[in-house]
Each structure stands twice: as C-alpha cells, then as structure tokens.
Amino acid sequence: MGADTLLARLDGVRKTGADRWLARCPAHDDRKASLAIRELPDGRVLVKCFAECESEGVLSAVGLDFSALYPPRPVGNCIQPVRRPFPAADVLQAVSFEALFVMLCARAINQGETLNETDRARLIVAASRLQRAVEAACHA
Hints:
With 140 residues, this protein is an alpha+beta fold. It folds into two domains: 3-69, no CATH class; 88-139. It is built from four helices and four strands. The protein has helices spanning 3-7, 55-61, 88-110, 117-139; strands at 11-17, 20-24, 35-39, 45-49.
C-alpha cells in the first residue's frame, strides 16, 4: 500500500514535492496543515505531525494501522536474508586462531615430526579458512 491510501483519508492535502505532501492532522483539531507525509523509493511511507501527535494516533484516526505504511512483503522463497558482516574483532580472532594452528603444524614439520591424519585434515581446513578470509577481504 502506498501513500495514496493514507492521502485519500486526509483533509487539506497538498503536494509539496516529489512524493511529499502536507495535510491537516486527523488526530487533533488542526486548522493548518501540520502533518507531513513522504513516500520513500522502497514504498515505505513516513508520517510526521509537527504538533507532536503520535503516528499511531494519526493512523488510528483514519482507520489504518502501521502495516499501511509499508509495502507488502513478497511471499515464497524469493526473499533472501540480508547477511550482516561479522565484527572485525571476531574475524581477526578467527584468522589468528587458524594462523596459529598453521604455524604450530609448520613448526612440528620443521622439527621432523609427522602430522597424524586428524592434524593433516585440520590443517587443510585452516588453510581453506585463511584463503576464504583473504578472498572476502579482497572483495569487500
């Protein structure tokens, strides 16, 4: 639902710019337009009463709720969750651990020791994780 649904229920609506309007606030006895409405490019609608009415009260006065201010969400599997980057300190700590493991294996090999199967497999994991960290840093 866009701004049109809200605007149709308001009095004294006038356009003030691209996707921006002023209207009389229905939540209080408004003689002049004190309600600002703005539709964002993603379809969300912002509402601000300069007489300090709460947005919920404005919407309630015209028979709407907050869901009217947001575009409908797509249904199905087409929604991809947004992946947030890990905090830098966590990434550095993980890289440090993997590097430490690689260093300990290198020292053992340098001293003539043979790595057992478990350590060899873990060394491959460590090297892979370090490589992915470098690749991720280069693409960021």
